[in-house]
Amino acid sequence: MTEAERTEKGGEERVGIGALAGKSFDLLIVGGGIVGSGVARDAALRGLRTLLVEQSDFASGTSSRSSRLLHGGLRYLAQGRIKLVHEASVEKMRLSKIAPHLCHPLAFLFPVWKGSGWSRWQLAIGVKIYDWLCGGRNLGKSRSYGADELLKHAPGLRKEGLKGGTSHFDALTQDARLVIDTLRSARESGALLRNYTSFVSAELTTQGGWKCLISDRGTGETVEVRSRAVINAAGAWSAEIPHSTVKLRLTKGIHVVIDRARLPVSEAVVLAEGDRILFVIPWGDRIILGTTDTEYLGDPAAVRTELADIEYVLRVVNGAFPDARISLEDVISSWSGVRPLIAPRHQKKDAPSDVSRNHEIRMGDPGWFDVAGGKLTTYRLMAEQTVDQVGRFLGLSLPASKTAEIPLNAGAQSGVLPPPVEQSVVAECCQREWTYHLDDLLLRRTSWHYYHPNQEEIARRAAQWMASELGWDEERTEQELLRYREAAEHPQQLATSAAEARR
User: Fold this and answer.
1) To 5 degrees, how large is the angle CA 20–CA 26–CA 28?
2) What are the residue ranges of helices labelled H in 99-174?
3) Helices (H), ranges, 333-416
4) In terms of CB atoms within 10 Å, which of 61, 259, 314, 399 comes out highest?
5) pTM of the entire structure?
6) Phi, psi (rounded to 5 degrees) for 223
7) What topology is assigned to 20-62+176-247+354-394 in CATH?
8) CATH topology of domain 249-339
9) How many whole angstroms separate alpha carbon 178 and alpha carbon 416?
10) Which residue has the higher pLDDT, 349 or 31?
11) What count of Cα atoms within 13 Å lies in the side-chain half-sphere of residue 419?
């Protein structure tokens, strides 16, 4: 059975792209990350005929490579970006209502050491303002601690020079699952959604609207569709899309995963390192460490975690927890991604951590909208504002957005922790969640690759399960295993190379 012939049980039929030839839509969305999925959901809920195309897998770019946090950004508050923090804080609370399964409240301890450049008392005021910016009620109440009390919450912190700290609340999420559940909700409202489908070109017609070419990445078949408006929500690739007006500054962020036994903290810890912030984030039986924030000038699809990136993260964490002595050999998995930040208009070259996380929605050509910048946490707001602008351009009296009220359509396996490694999970993902390749499953639908150390064993098991679901023969199964190994990062290989270099 080919991908074009397979039906997603209970969902839209995955038909050949030829069935779309000559079809007309109100809205064509380019990009299947968090922003594009949010626009698709909002537009479909308001009655617009909506088609979304993604050149790779849904969430395969930045939207599956974040810190997995829903947060207002306490650091942005220190930078004076009150509007951004307020927007993100309000959206965080809204997401806690519409997607509680993907919004796990988590306390964040912010220790302050002598000479760190951070004032304990300024932070104490800051976290109270942070609570207020959430609409007066955060996911938990912020607090201030003296050094001794803080050590009770985070044993193992470096005692020398510790002045105390604060605690505030944000939330742990699963970024790729947030995309998938948003897309499930968009499909439920009538949106047509295709991954592995490229946007080739667009031509503004004399009658108004756009004549667009899209291509199936698997078969190579290309068809023409028409749309009254086009949304460029391609994230790190948005500047490369024809007709785009976007100018980006890309920064690279990496994260590593270790066993929680190596750093047994029950609350997240914020570590300030100059103008950067690193997090120690409890994730079930694991700990996520990250992120970096460095300039990136390469191909967004080629971003990878380097040995120097991991060493930097471990140096900062070991400096704060000196008895932990975490080494390269402790790293179970890693991921890296690029943040598609809007390039500043002025000439001054800000540090990557200082570049604004605000979003912009611009109409260049008539009916062509570029949506860029922003944060994972503010995606719903970005989508609402985008569809508002589309409605005004099209001269439609659209109903008000209801995406802040209607719960997301959660998958049976959806949550902040990976589902159990079972065949039933694979069946759900293949039948209802556009899962066509092994890396789709292991990296984005389940996070099994990131969570479990026995990655090759799980990959082979999952490949056999997918083979039975999708009709793969032995050759295709081996091809999928090779594809997964090339797509995934394997920090253990970096550790082996480093050990060999020391000999």
Assistant:
1) 60
2) 120-133, 147-153
3) 379-394
4) 61
5) 0.95
6) -135, 165
7) FAD/NAD(P)-binding domain (3.50.50)
8) D-Amino Acid Oxidase; Chain A, domain 2 (3.30.9)
9) 9
10) 31
11) 21
